[in-house]
Amino acid sequence: MLDAKRAFDLAASALAAFVFAPVMPLVTVAVFVDDGLPLLFVQERIGCKRKAFRVLKLRTMRDGRVTRVGRWLRATGLDELPQFVNVVRGEMSVVGPRPLTREDLERLGWDTAEHDRRFDVRPGIVGLAQVIGGRTARHTAKLDALYARRASLSVDASMVALGFVSNVVGKTRMRALRRLVLGLGPRPLTTKRRPLTRRTASTHDRAAQSALA
After folding, report:
1. What is the pLDDT of residue 190?
2. Are 73 and 27 in contact (CB under 8 A)?
3. What digits encode the pLDDT tens for the residues 25-83?
């Protein structure tokens, strides 16, 4: 018998297949015309209970450089559409922490028991850290752990809605919209990124708590 979250994942995957059915052929042709084969990028990632799986994405790079079509795919998030196959397989969820490589986990120091909470749930296509905007590795880890503790169908539905908006308006505009919603104001036009202050981190954390209320 399916649990509620798994049923939600399958229903959302079916809806995504219907909504993006006209888009997927156009996107794959664009990838092929722009940069040839292969169309997919396949990489091992670490999932629930730290089990490895092979994540699927539309290829956006060649020889370490982002392609022209790849830049657009990344901006809209359309490169992640093949991950719904991972969802149907049960390797991922629609909503959950971002799946990382083993090397990334070691580099971030997230391969220790202290971060086990993050791996209590399946990794997701969209997650709280991406929507709220983790400004540092520590802040992202806190948001991932917060989602793992407070996950619910209402939270997942909200994250899916925000993920869809991100596909429509683009990730850059989505970040600007998120800052306005959180009351942070527009990002100043500067080439330097300001460090995350205690006050700003607190604002983001309060927003995350509110999103999971």
Report:
1. 41
2. yes
3. 999 999 999 999 999 999 999 999 999 999 999 999 999 999 999 999 998 889 999 99
**Contact in structure between 211 and 128 (CB atoms under 8 Å):** yes
Alpha-helix runs per DSSP H in 60-152: 68-76, 83-89, 102-108, 128, 137-150
Residue 62's identity, in one-letter code, is R
Using N-to-C axis directions, what is the helix angle for 4-20 and 153-169, rounded to 10°?
20
Is 55 in a helix, a strand, or coil?
strand
132, exposed or middle or buried, with CB in 10 Å at 0-12, 13-18, 19+? Answer: buried
If one counts every other C-beta atom within 10 angstroms of the C-beta of residue 168, the result is 11
Please identify which residue in the block is written with the tokens 């619910």: 152
Residue 118 near residue 146 (C-beta atoms within 8 A):
no
Name the residue among 95, 107, 2, 91 with its Cα closest to residue 47: 91
Tell me the per-residue pLDDT of 178-203, one tens digit each, with 9 for 90 and over.
554 444 444 443 434 455 555 555 55
Q: Using CB atoms within 10 Å of the CB of residue 112, give its burial: 0 to 12 exposed, 13 to 18 middle, 19+ buried.
A: exposed
Q: Which residue has the tokens 């308006």?
A: 169
Residue closest to 110 by CA, chosen among 45, 175, 178:
45
Q: Among 86, 81, 205, 89, which residue's Cα sits nearest to residue 147?
A: 205
Tell me the C-alpha distance between 59 and 49, whole Å. 27
CB-based contacts of 1: which residues, under 8 Å, 6+ apart? none
